[in-house]
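Researcher: Here's a chain I'd like modeled. Treat it as a single chain, no partners, no ligands.
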Amino acid sequence: MKLNLGCGNDVRPGYVNIDRLPPGQIPPDLYKQGDIQTLDWLTEDDKVDEIVAIDCIEYLPMNAVKQALANWAQKLVAGGTLKILMPDCHAIAQSFAQGQFDLKEFAQMLLGTQEGNDNRLSVMDTATLLSTLQEVGLSISLKRYEGVAIYVEAVK
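Model: Modeled as a single isolated chain. Structure tokens:
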């Protein structure tokens, strides 16, 4: 089983795509509407080969991020991979301080547009993300920057 969390319009074949928004015309075998803070409603522990979490962690409440990552790690099989892409608030702040972004761009990167469903609830930097992933029992296999975002692959 492969999961694509907080998928929005990024519906991937071969994955169970999950988002809090109604699926519209997407078939139920490809898309599930649900909360990604816990995946207990979807699957048992040690059943998932891959979890993709692209630009979704920042939409979880700050006090729920570590617990969500721990839950996702529990769902992975031994050798399973969690793939995360998220804004690095430290890199965003540095770029803003260096004049690379104006205040509106800076605010949108941290808070979202504040329109529709684009309301970000948490921020994290690379060091915190990496240490949290290790605390929940995952090993970092890949890390790279994509602009002011961090992409990480962590293996159970």
